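Q: Predict the assembly, please.
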Amino acid sequence: MKKTIFILSAASLMLAACTQEMVPQEPVAAVPGPTSFTASVEVEPTPKAVLDRNGSSKPQTFWENGDAISIYSSSDTDLSAAVGHKYVTTLGANATEAEFVLDGESTALPSGNYLATYPYRSAARGVNFSVSPYRVAAVDVPNAQTLVAGTYDKKACPMVAFAAEGSSAFSFKNAAALLKFSVSETNIVAGRIEVDAADKISGRFRADVDVTTHIPNLVTYTGQTYYNYINFTIDGSAALATGTDYYVAIRPTVLTSDLKIYLNGNLVKTINTSKLKAIERNQIYNLGTLSTPASIAEKKLVFDFTGAALSGWPTAKDQMSTNQSGGLGCTYPLYGTNYTFTLADCTGADGRRVYWSETATYGHRIVFENAERYVGFPAIAGYKLVHVQCESAQLNAASASIKPKMGITSNVVASGSNPTYVTGGDLQEWKAGNNHESYDYELSGTVGNTIYYLYCKVKGGFRNCTLTYVPI
Amino acid sequence: MKNNDLCLPEKRLYQPPVSEEFMLATEQMLCASGDPQGFTEEWGEIDLSLF
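A: Predicted assembly structure:
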């Protein structure tokens, strides 16, 4: 009934507001009658979620009240670093089409050709209308995503639109793809999607927008950081609801390796490249219901240090009282298990300089304030460490140009001596700066239930580490 | 900018087909000086649940 009132109201407004510049209307006979409209209201009484079925029963993204977009005009000055014009929608109910109004804080949009992005980006970004395809810099598919029950995090899944001068209709096209799944267990709190290191499925991309079809293609470009994985959790650290669909946004790309899905650190599904050769834009890939197998072929544990330090961890230098021999054991609980990290200095060190630090500029992370320090990774009974991936973080402002050197060793040695590097764990020079780059060490010759160390030859830091273990 | 809600009356009264051709045609509609209208895209679906 409410819908009928709206239609009548809209029709009245049309009669009052039509002007000479309006697009000619279709004959009345082409418009469905009010009876069918009332019926559609009766079968769709519930509010639309962010991702829902449209009138054709196809999944479609729905705008929400308050959604904001960035619009760039080819007449904007300095498009190499442009702050988009912010437009915001006001909606009573989620809808697949929405009108956007210039935000009061934003400058007027000059006439020209337009590119638009969702989500809104407050930072200055490069946009180029002078090339084919058009280019929109800094379009993000995050490598850490927060899941939303029954729908998806729209802000993790960018959309791009083009409109020619004189048009105000922006047909947003999905730049990413979605992976859809549900879980059968009640204790799943986190997971991970991973492909081979050569395949970049998350990070900061450039959207190349075809000048004819206006379809965006996410490409890598110089100076950005890319990842071969996406970690996900659910808002509030609760467990995922069983029997509920969840979605992870992923960059479209050709795959050179299997796609692996982990839940609570355990490998639960592998999709071979013969079944999934490429991830295509604007597709939802249904992975089905995921369950932990009885025999776990691989554990991939993500230890995140970007939050506040856990109890028992040193948070400043010289808090490691027993570091000289054996190191300091620090507990990190994950998925119901307490894992022990071992922080250690070289024998004879002049200070105890490994700790879980926080600064306003660099956030929380583990720092090696001096060289020749170690972080021992957890030993797990029945499993051996076969892969280490660390995401770098800057030590401090003074070390902005310092390139850390890190390797994986099987022991802790005296200052000035060389530790024993694990095969595949040789020193790697990390990039200088706070760039959060990932570094991989593919290890062989390791044994079960044994500590291996991240050894710092040149000082630096890291903000998370992902450790892969396989059964012995 | 004026409110041009009514520039696309046929879209207000029924769900249009959301084909690629339609999306392109929509982009080409002229509603001079109107506030931007944002339209979203229909997703495709691929079932990998059996693999």
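Chain A touches chain B through 68 residues (CB under 8 Å). The radius of gyration of chain A is 26 Å.
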